[in-house]
Amino acid sequence: MDSSTSPGKFRVPTMAGLVFPIEGTSQEIAVNGNDPPPEFFVKESAFGPVGSSPPMIPIPVIDLSLLSSETELEKLRSALTSWGCFQAMGHGISSSFLDKVREAGKEFFSLPMEEKQKCLRAACEGEGFGSDVVVSKQQVLDWCNRLFLMVFPEDKRRLNLWPETPNDFGETLIEYTMKIRSVMDVVFKATARSLKLEEDVFLKHFGEKTVMQARFNYYPPCPRSDMVLGLKPHSDKSGITVLLPDQEVEGLQIFKNNEWSRVPTIPHALIVNLGDQMEIMTNGIMKSPLHRVTTNPEKMRVSVAMLIEPDPEEEIGPADGLVDEERPKLYKTMKNYGHLNYVCFQKGVVAINEVKM
């Protein structure tokens, strides 16, 4: 979508410069009460039907304040080797501040379209407001608008894409990012200890040039929730992702043992999941979970995902202490995995399979 495009004609640019016209953003289509265009319909999937109603299965709950105990540390290891994710309690972030972050996202998405367009992403770039970049004509579009922002490194911030409303948006986002960074550091260290490794074996890859990005997701009501997804099945490109979920409307589902499970909402818990880069660094011992977001025919949903990645020039691969004769190296050592993951996601390909030995 370029700045000359009117709000009613949502033009989705591909990475090759091709353009596909879509009549309105998913938010506008929902407001107008129209059915989604066919570009949003999931016609077939290797991961089962969209409209199924899988069981709600509680994922593990970990109290981060108790990770000095062997019992909680073993619970963490079990959660990350079986599920690849957990609900985090004891994270030290007040419920009132978490509510403030959610409200900042809701307030932005409730602005008139002309105001949101001030944060519009440029053609073929991911950062800013809009939908995801289209990388192929066969790509199924997600029923989601998002505001995707680089928060760290500080010199990479594109403040022209940061909302002016609410007026404390930037201050709130930076404070939240720093709090989440502390949570992530605890998880990196505890994960290493649970594997009997030096505490900094993973954390050392996330230094001064670490990339931290915030993704505010808006999922409008969708009249064809039986055929349309909020986000396609994918695993995250990150080292760790921390999700602040909607407190009222569920939608996140995890794929485990060849079936989907709905993730329940726990008041003021954060959902922590490992990304592909941690699966690589743990040599496949811990998993990056495949997950998706469903749509709701009646209610909108807002969530905030914070992703942390190494500097793209940082080389990652399986930790030396996790490679031996019994468990050989399962993944290649590489740089800039995030870009590979993004392209694979939009093409419907599981990126981590591309870097297996």
Write the layout of secondary structure elements.
Layout: E1 10-13, E2 19-22, H1 26-31, E3 61-63, H2 70-82, E4 85-89, H3 95-109, H4 113-116, E5 128-130, E6 145-152, H5 169-194, E7 211-219, E8 229-234, E9 240-244, E10 252-256, E11 259-262, E12 270-274, H6 276-281, E13 290-294, E14 301-309, H7 337-347
Parallel strand pairs: 3-4
Antiparallel strand pairs: 1-2, 4-12, 5-6, 6-7, 7-14, 8-13, 9-12, 9-14, 10-11, 10-13
Helix pairs in contact: 2-5, 3-5
Detailed description of the structure:
The relative contact order is 0.16. The strands form 3 sheets. This protein has an 8-stranded mixed sheet. A 4-stranded antiparallel sheet has the order 8-13-10-11, with no helix packed on it. Strands 1-2 form a two-stranded antiparallel sheet. The protein is an alpha+beta fold and 357 residues long. Helix 3 crosses helix 5. It contains 7 helices and 14 strands. A hairpin with a 2-residue loop joins strand 10 and strand 11 (259-262). The radius of gyration is 20 Å and the shape is globular. The longest helix has 26 residues, at 169-194. It has helices at 26-31, 70-82, 95-109, 113-116, 169-194, 276-281, 337-347, and strands spanning 10-13, 19-22, 61-63, 85-89, 128-130, 145-152, 211-219, 229-234, 240-244, 252-256, 259-262, 270-274, 290-294, 301-309.
* Terminal Cα span: 38 Å
- Widest sheet: strand ordering: 3-4-12-9-14-7-6-5
**H/E topology pattern:** EEHEHEHHEEHEEEEEEHEEH
The overall average pLDDT, rounded, is 88
Unreliable stretches covering 5 or more consecutive residues: 1-23
Cα gyration radius (Å):
20 Å
Please state the structural category. Answer: alpha+beta
Number of helices: 7
Helix proportion: 10-25%
Q: How many E-type strands?
A: 14
Strand content: 15-25%
Shape summary? globular
**Major sheet attributes:** 8 strands, mixed
